[in-house]
Specification:
Layout lengths: L8 H22 L2 H6 L2 E6 L2 E7 L10 E6 L5 E8 L5 E7 L8 E9 L4 E7 L3 E2 L2 E2 L5 E7 L5 E7 L4 E4 L2 E2 L13 E7 L17 E15 H4 L1
Antiparallel strand pairs: 1-2, 2-5, 3-4, 4-15, 5-14, 6-11, 6-15, 7-10, 7-14, 8-9, 10-12, 12-13
C-alpha cells in the first residue's frame, strides 16, 4: 500500500533480538543483590558459626531464573527454585565464611539429598564483582552429582578444585588457601566446573524446577584424612 512501510523478515528478526536484549539489560539493572544479602537465610553450622545464605541468580546479568531457599524444620538448607534458560541458566546461594577455614583444612564434607541434577560447590575469597568473585581472584569449583531422593556424602578435596573466572575454568598458578576462603556456595548451572555443558539429563531444558537439600557441612583436617 502506498505510504505504508514494509519490513523484511531480517528487519523483524533484528527488532525482536534488540527488544529481547533491552529486556535483559532492564532486568539486570533491577536486580537487587544488596536486598538479597539483607534477606539472607540462616541455616547450618560450620566451624561453630551459623551460615547466612543469600541468593545470586542469573538475574544479575538479565536472566529470569529464581532461587527460593529456606531452612527446613529438620535444620537442612533447602536450595530450590526454577531455572529459565531463556537469557540465562544458573541459580546459586552463597554464604560468608567468617574467619576462613582452619589452616590445616584439606577437604570439605557435604551431606545432601538431591534430585538427580549435577550441582556445583563453590569457594572464594568473597571479593565481589557484578557476577560473583572478582576478576582478580577465581572461585574454586567442584561438581556435585546427585541421585533423585538419595542421600549422598561428598568429600571435596581443596586440591582437586577447578579455578574459575566469570563462569569458565582458567589456567593459574594460584593455589587455594584455606584461611582465605571467606565465602562458599552451591550452584545449578548450564556449565559444569570443567566448562563443559551440563547435560540435559543432569540439568534440564527450557524452564524447570530443582531441589537440593544440604544436611551438613564440615571441614576436614589433614589428620582426619590420613
Amino acid at each position: 500500500m502506498p505510504g505504508v512501510a514494509t519490513w523484511s523478515w531480517g528487519q523483524i528478526l533484528h527488532t525482536v533480538i534488540l527488544l529481547s536484549a533491552m529486556g535483559q539489560v532492564i532486568r539486570a539493572a533491577r536486580y537487587d543483590r544488596a536486598a538479597n544479602e539483607r534477606n539472607a537465610v540462616r541455616s547450618l553450622d560450620l566451624i561453630g558459626r551459623k551460615l547466612n545464605w543469600h541468593r545470586l541468580d542469573d538475574g544479575v546479568m538479565g536472566g529470569q531464573s529464581e532461587t527460593i531457599h529456606s531452612s527446613t524444620d529438620a535444620g537442612e538448607l533447602h536450595f530450590s527454585g526454577q531455572i529459565n534458560t531463556q537469557g540465562g541458566g544458573f541459580c546459586s546461594i552463597r554464604s560468608p565464611v567468617e574467619g576462613g577455614f582452619p589452616a590445616d583444612t584439606v577437604a570439605v564434607r557435604i551431606c545432601y539429598v538431591g534430585d538427580g541434577k549435577t550441582y556445583k560447590v563453590l569457594f572464594s575469597d568473597g571479593n565481589k564483582s557484578a557476577f560473583g568473585p572478582s576478576r582478580r581472584s577465581p572461585s574454586w569449583q567442584s561438581d556435585l552429582p546427585t541421585k533423585n531422593g538419595v542421600e549422598g556424602t561428598a568429600v571435596v578435596r581443596l586440591d582437586s578444585l577447578t579455578p574459575s573466572l566469570q563462569g569458565g575454568p582458567v589456567e593459574t598458578d594460584l593455589k587455594i588457601d584455606p584461611t582465605e576462603v571467606k565465602e562458599m556456595g552451591f550452584m545449578l548451572s548450564l556449565k559444569l566446573s570443567s566448562g563443559e555443558s551440563n547435560p540435559v539429563e543432569t540439568f534440564g531444558a527450557g524452564v524447570f524446577p530443582f531441589s537440593l537439600k544440604i544436611r551438613a557441612i564440615e571441614v576436614v583436617g589433614a589428620e582426619a584424612m590420613n
